Design the sequence.
């Protein structure tokens, strides 16, 4: 399946902290994208091998050392997690929004609260690849 990345921009959050945003249009219905995200393979495609999403407040851990807590989970709309690059890294916030667009789904991933030392290009690449894996058939 071919995916189109519509935009990829660095933006400032309302409180002045830096964020990156990755947007992709996926030529699959939102119900299929959500179903994939809620399965083990989809969660791991999104957050990393070993990651499992739980209820609000539940921790998650991936084999690459990234970790966080599920912050919110709204079927066919949004998943928000805190995200640490490793156990000692400061918390950031990853928000994945989805909405129907035509016959497909618009995915908007926003990674917020990045400090000056964050490698924004590496994070853009990470999340762009994660969305590709998540929506791959």
Sequence:
């Amino acid at each position: 399946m071919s995916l189109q990345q519509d935009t990829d921009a660095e933006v400032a959050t309302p409180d002045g902290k830096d964020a990156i945003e990755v947007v992709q249009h996926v030529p699959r219905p939102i119900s299929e994208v959500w179903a994939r995200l809620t399965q083990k393979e989809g969660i791991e495609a999104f957050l990393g091998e070993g990651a499992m999403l739980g209820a609000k407040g539940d921790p998650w851990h991936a084999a690459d050392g990234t970790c966080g807590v599920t912050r919110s989970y709204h079927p066919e709309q949004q998943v928000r997690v805190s995200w640490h690059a490793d156990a000692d890294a400061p918390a950031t916030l990853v928000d994945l929004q989805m909405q129907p667009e035509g016959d497909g789904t618009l995915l908007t991933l926003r990674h917020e609260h990045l400090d000056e030392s964050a490698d924004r290009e590496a994070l853009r690449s990470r999340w762009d690849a994660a969305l590709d894996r998540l929506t791959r058939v």
Summary: Residues 1-16 have pLDDT under 50 and may be disordered. The two ends are 7 Å apart (CA to CA). The longest helix spans residues 120-135. The first strand starts at residue 4 and ends at 12.
